[in-house]
Amino acid sequence: DVARASRVMGDVEESRARDARGGRTAFAWRDAHAVALVAKMRELGVVANESLTRAGDGKAYVTTERVREEVMREVERCGGRVGVVALSTALGVDASTCERAAKALARENASSGARFLEGELMTDGYFDDVARETQEILRENGTATVSDVARKFSLGADLVVKVLRERVVGASDVKMDGSLVYTSEYVAKLTSRVRETLMACAVPTSRDALLREALGEEARAQLVGSVLSEVIKSKAVRLSGEMSGGVWYPAAHLDRQRKKLLEMFAQMGVVSVDAAARVGFDAKQAKKILSEADESHLEFGSPACFVAKRVLDQFETAISEALDEDGYCYTPDVLPEGLTSCAETLAQTSVLQKHVEFGREYVVTKSFIKKCTDAIKRFGELAAEKAIRENEKKDVATLREFLVANSVGDSDVIAAVKRAVPGVEADLIQELVRVHKVAAVLAFKERISFAIASHGDKLRMSCDAAKKIFLASYPTALLCSKGTAEVLSHDSHAMTYTCRRYAVPCADAFLRSKAEKSFDEGDSAAPLTEKLRAFIVESFSDGNKAKALGRDLIDAIRREKSPMDVMDSLGRLCELFGVRLPAPNKKTERSMLHVHKKGLEEQLRAATDISKALLIVVPLLVAQTRGKVVAITGRSLGTALDACDGLEPERRTVVKGAITQVLDELTGASSSTSAIPIDIETLKAAALSGTSSRDD
What contacts 24+ positions apart, CB below 8 Å, involve 377-380? Predict the structure, then answer.
């Protein structure tokens, strides 16, 4: 079989040679017997497998060399670029054979630039055509992008970059920056237009707006940023102005803004970096300008501020005045306008050399510490009084048990301090209690020890307990009495209620504390009868004047017309006895008002009954609009609401509608004012919408 195949192959080769000499094509045989014979020869090893491949129809063979020749001719016919699929269709050979042939040709011609990429064979001539067309685009437009070229020729961006760098960039005046290709003439045109726009600019203009004005649609080109920078830095043509923060500032504008910055600094004494930026200067520029005007100014804070020394002196003075008056200072109240950090500002003064920074925003003195300690101590005494009252019928042994029991809780002590220094942050109070809670414990034990020593002397114990109740209740009674008398002076119900609720209990506590004869009055906090008041007054041993003033107080209590009549009579009696009352001042009243409003807001948020909520809402509105504390009953709701000067009409309408609604429900009448019922959440929203950061 081998010999026979060899003979046949010889005949085949001879036939191919004759065909070639005769000019006839000898590309393949399309005879089924010849195909079968060739297959047998490949099977027997007579013909190498790699030298032949089946044609696409399966009835012919073609040599590998011939495939490569045909691939080369086809790629030249297609302009230097052809895909494997197109080759397979054109040559009638399977795609894998075409791909092998194309890759082999690419390897052989790699030095001349041929490439096989993503299923396509591309020759050096094809890349020359890409370069020529790109150069034509540059001659017409002056610029081209890699993405545009890649889309035009359906090539990858990396390949386009390589082709452009090898065949376009460097030729004549063409340059490449990132993905942008451009000519020197194009750059010169952009430069001229940008320079003309800068010279004509009269007001601050952003970089983007400037480029849009100068270049129009071309402002989006990658190159324009560097062109603008080169124009500004150029020494050949000096421009009057400067670029800062992405904005071009003409020189005339800079002069005006520099004047504004100096005026701002002269007026306020504080200029933040942000404020300087708003007039066109960064931190470095602002520092230079302000240093020329005031060498003594300081720069501190985050964000940084430029601060005149006089402002810090005023800040220090304000703190000192507050410390002298109250013993503590909430520094945000006196922080100069424009500064944001109390701690950073304090660090620039000498305040902390004499006083103590407590918490984040407070400066305290020994007097403030003493005030808080006194409140803590008073709480311990009151806790002891309560324990004594609850166990007054028990023996001394029971009282001694209190000396070892832990009867002073942290939360109660914190509440006592909050009442003494309202408005102070919780962390400051908690730290004060942590340090000084021992004062409450000692006071508690001291009072219990006093009760043990005075066991059986009820008058002494009663007077001592009443004195503490009086001193604790007096500030609130005075504030509420003044508020009601000022806002609701014509409302007899409110005046009477305030007398009974605040003024009279305070007066009774004072009278108890001055009793000089024992009387069976039960609980020392219970209200006195008129007979007991007269008994106490007549027991005064300080002369007729004390008794006369005491009778005046009893008359004021009996009339119940004005709470201030009671408080004024009480004040005169206290003065006669030498009792030192807390001195009222605006800051204390503001603090108490703040605590009052916050308390009402908390009660209102927890309220579920609309009728009870109204008794919270209306006093809250009075506090918001009039800055006063009032005490009212349901009878005074309408009058108190009318007294809320400046209350927004929509809020007033909601509250007034709620009052009418509740009255209708109580009387059984049908509503005549509104067909839509007002629920408690709507009422709450109307009341709480007046709460502002200023209140806090």
Answer: 377/439, 377/440, 377/442, 377/443, 378/416, 378/443, 378/468, 378/471, 378/472, 379/408, 379/412, 379/413, 379/416, 379/440, 379/443, 380/408, 380/439, 380/440, 380/441, 380/442, 380/443, 380/444, 380/446, 380/447
